[in-house]
């Protein structure tokens, strides 16, 4: 049986060694400056961690989602934020599994060496939100090109990526039998697109997360940039979304352990009324409860990753892992900020920064309500509500 306390220790030691070069002060300054952790992501790339999921024949490490999730977990557990670079992990599977031989040969070696970054995925739109099959961005075939028109919102890391995986409708909704049909995914060369039909408008937000509105006005991309078969994009993007959910679960678990470590150390030392505040059960219990929940979420995360790595359906497990992990890290965050008292609000303690960062995962990449709805309808077979 997998011992979740010691699993993948060699991998953890390797990633911890890099993370140790980037202490709290580094991540705090990046957050204050609203900057991108360029040096950190470069170091991860240089040492091959960003190529974890690329098969060895293309210069990558040939690891599975489980190992990739451990990398993400350790970044967050060290006080960093994988949000700066997790796109490369969840997008990679989409390209590796559904890309053509030509695309794999052309791109994977460059992604493995760090010459190119594949950090962006463009799915969400302002007018359709979570109702993904209703997206309005279209891709129309014109000779050897597709012409893209429409709008996206909250598309992250566009300014720190070379490539983006874009979801667009290739057959109108009115002409397909099932609403999930007629959608396709494409590789977009971001820098070329910014010169010829794609406008990028940054969105300032609560977290230091580089995210943007995108406007497409007759953007032309080569037809060879289509990934897989035209019309099956929704099915392909689900591979990426399940990977994303499992990876973000691991990140939340990393956050959860970070909060628990910090608050446990703090309440053991901080004395009020002549004794450590951690001696009060009112302080102990929320911390213990959060720890129990993080550990339980961790089991579901490993299960989701194992199913994904075996090529088996893992939608339910990936969703449940993300739900449990995001909830438990948020509870750990609340206990951590609460028992730091006023100091929890001081930037130099890093608690408020991590608190903001982990809060995002109640909403993105899928909101808690939509996971509950998925489980109710797809796992429990209850009537569909939409
Ligand atoms: C910082 C950040 C980075 C992001 N990065 C990316 C990215 O790189 N690529 C990308 O494609 N997207 C990205 N997103 C978008 C993200 O995936 C969406 O915000 C998320 O899926 C929720 O969609 P929405 O914002 O449109 O909310 P909506 O769909 O408008 O929903 C709003 C709220 O209503 C509730 N709700 C909606 N429908 C139901 C229902 N049927 N039943 C019950 N409750 C419901 C939910 O609580 C939900 O949170 C990012 C978002 C943020 C904030």
From TrEMBL:
Q: Name one GO molecular function term.
A: flavin adenine dinucleotide binding
Cofactor(s) named in the record: FAD
Q: Which residues form the Acyl-CoA dehydrogenase/oxidase N-terminal domain?
A: 9-115
Where's the Acyl-CoA dehydrogenase/oxidase C-terminal domain? Answer: 233-364
Show where the Acyl-CoA oxidase/dehydrogenase middle domain sits. Answer: 120-218
The yes or no answer to whether the keyword ATP-binding is present is no
The entry's keywords: FAD, Flavoprotein, Oxidoreductase
Q: Which InterPro entries match?
A: Acyl-CoA_DH_CS, Acyl-CoA_Oxase/DH_mid-dom, Acyl-CoA_Oxase/DH_mid-dom_sf, AcylCo_DH-like_C, AcylCo_DH/oxidase_C, AcylCoA_DH/ox_N, AcylCoA_DH/ox_N_sf, AcylCoA_DH/oxidase_NM_dom_sf
Which family, according to UniProt?
A: Belongs to the acyl-CoA dehydrogenase family.
User: Can you name this protein?
Assistant: Acyl-CoA dehydrogenase
User: Native species of this protein?
Assistant: Roseovarius azorensis
Q: What is the lineage of its organism?
A: Bacteria, Pseudomonadati, Pseudomonadota, Alphaproteobacteria, Rhodobacterales
């Amino acid at each position: 049986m997998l011992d979740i306390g010691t699993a993948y220790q060699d991998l953890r030691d390797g990633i911890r060694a890099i993370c140790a070069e980037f202490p709290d002060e580094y991540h705090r300054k990046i957050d204050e400056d609203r900057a991108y952790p360029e040096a950190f992501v470069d170091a991860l790339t240089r040492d091959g961690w960003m190529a974890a999921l690329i098969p060895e024949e293309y210069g990558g490490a040939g690891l599975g989602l489980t190992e990739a999730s451990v990398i993400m977990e350790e970044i967050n557990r060290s006080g960093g934020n994988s949000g700066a670079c997790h796109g490369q992990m969840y997008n990679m599977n989409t390209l590796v599994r559904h890309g053509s031989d030509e695309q794999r040969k052309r791109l994977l070696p460059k992604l493995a060496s760090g010459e190119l970054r594949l950090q962006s995925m463009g799915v969400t739109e302002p007018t359709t939100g979570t109702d993904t099959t209703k997206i309005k961005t279209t891709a129309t075939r014109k000779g050897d090109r597709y012409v893209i028109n429409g709008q996206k919102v909250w598309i992250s890391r566009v300014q720190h990526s070379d490539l983006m995986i874009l979801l667009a409708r290739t057959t109108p909704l009115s002409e397909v039998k099932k609403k999930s049909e007629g959608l396709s995914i494409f590789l977009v060369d971001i820098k070329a697109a910014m010169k010829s039909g794609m406008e990028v408008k940054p969105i300032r937000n609560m977290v230091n997360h580089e995210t943007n509105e995108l406007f497409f006005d007759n953007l032309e991309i080569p037809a060879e940039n289509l990934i897989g078969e035209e019309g099956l994009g929704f099915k392909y993007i689900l591979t990426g979304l399940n990977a994303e959910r499992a990876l973000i679960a691991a990140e939340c678990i990393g956050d959860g352990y970070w909060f628990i470590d910090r608050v446990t150390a703090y309440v053991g030392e901080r004395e009020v009324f002549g004794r450590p505040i951690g001696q009060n059960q009112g302080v102990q219990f929320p911390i213990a409860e959060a720890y129990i929940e993080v550990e339980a979420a961790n089991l579901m995360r490993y299960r989701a990753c194992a199913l994904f790595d075996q090529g088996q359906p893992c939608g339910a497990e990936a969703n449940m892992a993300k739900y449990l992990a995001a909830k438990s890290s948020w509870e750990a965050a609340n206990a951590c900020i609460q028992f730091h008292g006023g100091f929890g609000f001081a930037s130099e303690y890093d608690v408020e920064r991590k608190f903001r960062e982990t809060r995002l995962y109640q909403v993105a990449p899928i909101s808690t309500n939509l996971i509950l709805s998925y489980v109710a309808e797809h796992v429990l077979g209850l009537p569909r509500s939409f």
